[in-house]
Amino acid sequence: STSMPFIPHTEEEVRDMLAAIGAGSIDALFDEIPSELRARSLSGVPAGLSEMAVSRLMSARAAECGAPLCFIGAGAYEHHVPAAIWEVASRGEFYSAYTPYQAEASQGTLQLIYEFQTMMTRLTALDVSNASLYDGASALAEAVLMAVRANRTSKSRRVLIPRTVNPVYRQVAEAIVAAQGITIDSIGFDAKTGVVDVAQLGTPGEAAALIVQQPNFFGALEDADALTDWAHQHGMLVVGVVNPTSLALLQPPGAWGKDGADIACGEGQPLGIPLSSGGPYFGFMCCRMEHARQMPGRIVGRTVDLDGKPGYALTLQAREQHIRRSKATSNICTNQGLMVTAATQYMAMLGTQGLREVALTSHANTRALVERLSAVLGVERAFARPFFHEVVVRVQGKPVADVLEGLAAENILGGYALKADYPELGEALLVCATETRTAEDIERYVSALRRVLGKV
């Protein structure tokens, strides 16, 4: 049929099928749809172009975007991605692999996922990892649902989330869990330090879990040990939201406080996934062995075949879990397997030492950025607190929106404006530097900021 050119059938097959069901045309099958609701043509779509013309057009479009100097983090980070990673990940065997339900046909993919899980459990110091979450925000939502299910001592459907957790993560978690009768209660932060003050928490009332983001959205380091112990004393499970790069330096969630966090989750994008208009990314989740059966998504296990050779298979979950609607542990079906493939290669290529160097260099560059920014009159750090590779600065003399606009005119992405999410911070800006920023980059930012603020 000319009206639906993407149907993979010949004209003859279409005629035979229409004849068998007694319809005159494909359009006749949809006669119940009022004509005014039908799109006759796609007026905004131009005529087809040749490959050469398309390549030329796309190159010109890409050039219009420019390659600005990036000092934004706020949950997505520009790290160096070694060329070998996507050369391997985009091989056909990985690139087009489907969900590995058939173990006998998927040993390569299953082994890779098993390696990924092993690396994530080592990074987080927890027992079990899954391998199928959409992104960091939905990973937190799934962790909230899981914590409510897994908390044996409390039947509470209330979860405490500090305002220092990424605002987008909080919105996504709220959207996903609210309809399931779970209440999210907000916890404030200390205005001087930008972290949750355990001493001010008092008695929380019954709750299923406490969420702790480390480093938090402001880049500051929470007192994860004290928060974990406090939550456990009050019968809550602890969910850590962590940046995987930072775990090369910081104490892993499995070692927080006396007993460690119960669940850890986060965004895997820093592990070899380039910044690209907001995705695709992938979420990760790890937990203690006692909660493994409550964990959503797929888990790959290692076993032996009839000949005693090692082999890999999906474990602890039937395929049916994805179609059991409300009876399923979760309705996650998204695999994000390609991103996991790249991340596994990234961790394997960098190794423990390489990941540590990325983390150390990012921290050092952020320190250098903060020192240079503090030398510009009217720019100061908002919080006196150790940080990883992001910091909140306050700007005086000009609204942050205008400052960012001025920097953008010089092809610099100057940071993330916090006013919409945290009006009480005033004219505040979240800035980030990773290992990709050089001393020259930082000087370029500082001199541009001087001009924008009229401090030349």
Could you give a quick summary of the protein structure above?
This protein has 12 helices and 15 strands.
Description:
By secondary structure, the protein is an alpha/beta fold. Helix content is 34%, strand content 14%. The protein has helices spanning 11-21, 26-29, 51-65, 83-89, 92-95, 107-124, 136-150, 167-177, 224-233, 337-374, 400-409, 439-452, and strands spanning 69-70, 128-129, 158-162, 183-187, 209-214, 237-242, 263-267, 283-287, 299-304, 310-315, 379-381, 390-395, 412-413, 416-417, 428-432. The strands form 4 sheets. Strands 2-8-7-6-5-3-4 form a 7-stranded mixed beta sheet, sandwiched between helices. It has a 4-stranded antiparallel beta sheet with strand order 11-12-15-14, covered by helices on one side. Strand 5 (209-214), helix 9 and strand 6 (237-242) form a beta-alpha-beta unit. Helix 4 runs antiparallel to helix 10 (337-374), helix 6 (107-124) packs parallel to helix 10 and helix 7 packs across helix 8. The longest helix is centred in the last third of the chain and has 38 residues, at 337-374. The protein is globular, with a radius of gyration of 25 Å. The mean pLDDT is 93.
